[in-house]
Amino acid sequence: MSMGRDIYCDTRLILDKLEEKFPSGALGASLPEQKATEKLLEDWTVDRVFPRAAQLIPPDMPLLNDLKWVKDREDYMGRSWAKSDIVQARPEALAHVRGFFELLESTTLADGRDWVLKTEKPSLADIHAIWPFHWLSTMKGALPPSTFGKEHFPKVYAWMDRFSKALKIAAESAPKPTTLKGAEAVKHVTQAELAEPEGMVDAEDPLGLKKRQYVESWPTDSGFNHRDSGQLFALTRREIVLTTQAKAGHRGVHIHHPRTNFRIRAVGADGGSKL
């Protein structure tokens, strides 16, 4: 996501920024205990549920016949996407995902509430909790009806049905997006102003990095073969901000990464490691 020349990576950080930048439409909780529930659900679905959910992509899915797509997924996830390996991993993944369904059915949704935090409409907690389950439920062949039917987890499926209806209503009332091609998007972003003021580097951060120091930053859970590099513009407990050199005819951008599941280290000005 980009706002001006600030580019935000990772859904966790993007949602946080949307909450901050558009408070009138914020969906996040206000009470500390509800914020804790939000955060725990966010971490649970990203770090525990999704890796197992991704193993339930059906082996007969047409995309698995596209070698370029398979290679891209293997590079991104750091594991094999061969059909034989998908078939072998499927039973264990199903066992884990069934446990995740059961947890929601028997705890969070057990009292018959409509939404996770007993709100009148879906909140950020629902978004954090529902997305891998909703994704699997819409993927033909991912979940076997014999163990994942609505009769097995009626509260979870009712929750997903409510969410789908709310999502449809929201989409119908949202403004129509403008589609840009790659070159147009680059021009649009690099000609804009920065969306955020200059940040600070936490002097007490354990890594001991300094502002304007050359660094590289990358995710540690997936996509770790690709790294962003530049000068350190800001470093806080939750965020890393790099400023990049602009190519001819363009202005540099600021790249924002979350601290969660991202690693940052100092490098030389030429991009080499600095010990």
Q: How would a textbook summarize the main sheet?
A: 7 strands, mixed
* Low-pLDDT regions: none
Helix content: 40-55%
Tally of helical segments:
8
Rg, Cα atoms, Å:
21 Å
How far apart are the termini? 32 Å
- Beta content comes to 5-15%
Q: Largest sheet, order of strands side by side?
A: 1-2-6-5-4-3-7
**SSE order in H/E notation?**
EEHHHHHHHHEEEEE
Based on secondary structure, the structural category is: alpha+beta
Structure summary, number of beta strands: 7
Shape: globular
Could you please describe the fold and organization of this structure?
43% of the residues lie in helices and 12% in strands. With 275 residues, the chain is α+β, with helices and mostly antiparallel strands. It has a seven-stranded mixed β-sheet with strand order 1-2-6-5-4-3-7, with helices on one face. A hairpin with a 2-residue loop joins strand 1 (2-3) and strand 2. Helix 2 (32-54) runs parallel beside helix 5 (124-137). The longest helix has 26 residues, at 83-108.
Topology:
Blueprint: E1 2-3, E2 6-8, H1 11-21, H2 32-54, H3 67-77, H4 83-108, H5 124-137, H6 145-148, H7 154-173, H8 182-190, E3 214-219, E4 228-235, E5 239-243, E6 254-258, E7 262-266
Parallel strand pairs: 2-6
Antiparallel strand pairs: 1-2, 3-4, 3-7, 4-5, 5-6
